Amino acid sequence: MSTPALTHWLLYCRPGFEQDCAQEALRQAKQQRPIIGAEQPAIIANSGYVHITLNEQTPQFKELVFARQLIRLEYIIAELSERDRLTPLLTAVAALPHSFGALWLEVPDTNEGKTLSAFTRRFQPLLETALREQGKLQDGAENTVRPELVEGSARTEKTPAYKLNHLPRLHIFFPDKSQAFIGTSDPYNSSASVMGIHRQNMPAEAPSRSTLKLAEAIEVFMDKGEQSRLLRSGMTAVDLGAAPGGWTWQMVKRGIRVAAVDNGPMKGVLAKHALVEHLKQDGFKFAPRKAVDWLICDMVEKPAKVAELISAWFIAGWCKHAIFNLKLPMKQRLGAVDSALGGIRKRLDEEGINYKISAKQLYHDREEVTVFLTRAKH
Ligand SMILES: C[S@@+](CC[C@H](N)C(=O)[O-])C[C@H]1O[C@@H](n2cnc3c(N)ncnc32)[C@H](O)[C@@H]1O
């Protein structure tokens, strides 16, 4: 029997979580089929990325908690000369079978990475022009004349975004100035954001930076249709561990009425707000008077205890959807996430409840991951 071919994968993650990211991706691949003849994963502590080797398995991005991005790695150029970075990159890309919908030049999410981003910004237009000339980049600048769109005059039109969005993306990742990792991502099995980072702007009125986590979670876990269906004005929510109010603010801004449970004070515009009822109670003992649409929960507690609480809310029928954070321990972080999510699945399965659950370590998460749980239709 011949040995299966090796495939290489580049995953981005929060710096410091490389082990968790690699371990989780390898475990998922092994569940598809055994990994034969692969090398050990290349892990550099605090680098913000990992390189793993598989056979025919394809990691499933949505199922990975710690990966910010998933890229099929095609080439590594280990010694890029400062005099001419362009030629070896163009040669490598020319050998790839596809043409691409986008070119993303990326760097690690580290301090070193930040120093490289000025270089990638300068380099991007150069490389884009050359790749377009090679026919490798289907870009908006491939002006298609569509006179029918403008009466009386021809108008130049960019390639429609919906077409580009279906094509694979080309990633060139610079771990440093002298190396380049060249790979591709499948728009249906990856993050739609450069570097896998959904940046959010800090809203001036929100009382805490935590608001960015919930804003990001809404973007990551729900498509636009779900967002407008599941987060509607007139809905109701309970926010456990609400103070000073960043998460509550995200709900209120969408016209959702919130019972904000916390012994601490709500701040800024939320200290007194027509849509907010502040309840100084223990979030683990609180029971709503009426079922609500949403439970959101950002209490700093052991993941197992939070998981138990969320399961109890779903089983009691007190909410339809939940977004909550699991604060990670110092060690065995993947194990803690597994057992918290496993615990919820087990309890809801036992009760015959249909649900969908997704978890991610978001860009705005630190030592924590965020989970979205919703009742699924039969
Ligand atoms: C990380 S902060 C929440 C920040 C909030 N999500 C925001 O966006 O502003 C955690 C909050 O949980 C509250 N908390 C911790 N244990 C709690 C409990 N048992 N019941 C209610 N609140 C609790 C703390 O008082 C603290 O305000």
Structure description:
The chain is an alpha/beta fold and 378 residues long. It has a seven-stranded mixed β-sheet. It has helices spanning 18-32, 86-94, 111-133, 161-164, 211-221, 224-230, 246-252, 303-316, 333-350, and strands spanning 7-12, 42-43, 49-54, 69-77, 102-106, 144-145, 156-157, 169-176, 179-185, 236-240, 257-261, 276-279, 294-297, 321-327, 355-360, 368-375. It is globular. Residues 141-157 have low confidence and may be disordered. Bound molecules: S-adenosylmethionine. Residues 208, 210-211, 240-247, 261-264, 282-284, 298-300 line the site of S-adenosylmethionine. S-adenosylmethionine (SAM) binds at residues 208, 210-211, 240-247, 261-264, 282-284, 298-300.
Jot down its keywords.
9 helices, 378 residues, single chain, alpha/beta, 23% strand, 29% helix, globular, binds S-adenosylmethionine
SSE layout and pairings?
Blueprint (H helix, E strand, L loop, with lengths): L6 E6 L5 H15 L9 E2 L5 E6 L14 E9 L8 H9 L7 E5 L4 H23 L10 E2 L10 E2 L3 H4 L4 E8 L2 E7 L25 H11 L2 H7 L5 E5 L5 H7 L4 E5 L14 E4 L14 E4 L5 H14 L4 E7 L5 H18 L4 E6 L7 E8 L3
Parallel strand pairs: 5-8, 10-11, 10-13, 11-12, 13-14
Antiparallel strand pairs: 1-3, 1-4, 2-3, 4-9, 6-7, 8-9, 14-16, 15-16
Bound molecules: S-adenosylmethionine (SAM).
The site of S-adenosylmethionine has 21 residues, from helix 7.
